[in-house]
Amino acid sequence: MTTIGVLGMQGAIREHVRMLEALGADTLVVRSIDDLAQIDGLVLPGGESTAMRRLLDRYGLLEPLRANTDLPMFGTCAGLILLATEVEGYDAHLRKIPMTVKRNAFGRQVDSFEVELPVKGIEAPVEAVFIRAPQVATVEPVVEVLAEVEEAIVAVRYDKYVACSFHPELTDDLSMHRYFLDLVEAKKHQLT
Amino acid sequence: MEKRQVGTDKVKRGMAEMQKGGVIMDVINAEQAKIAEAAGAVAVMALERVPSDIRKMGGVARMADPTIIEDVMGAVSVPVMAKCRIGHIAEARVLESMGVDFIDESEVLTPADEEFHLYKRDYKAPFVCGARDLGEASRRIGEGAAMIRTKGEPGTGNIVEAVRHMRTVQAQVKRLLSMSIDEVMTEARDLGAPFEVLMQIREAGRLPVVNFAAGGIATPADAALMMHLGADGVFVGSGIFKAENPEKFARAIVEATTYHDDYERIAHLSKGLGEAMKGLDVRTLKEEELMAPRGW
Question: Which of A91, A143, A167, B293 has the CB geometry, 3.0–4.6 Å to A158, for a possible disulfide?
Answer without folding.
Answer: A143
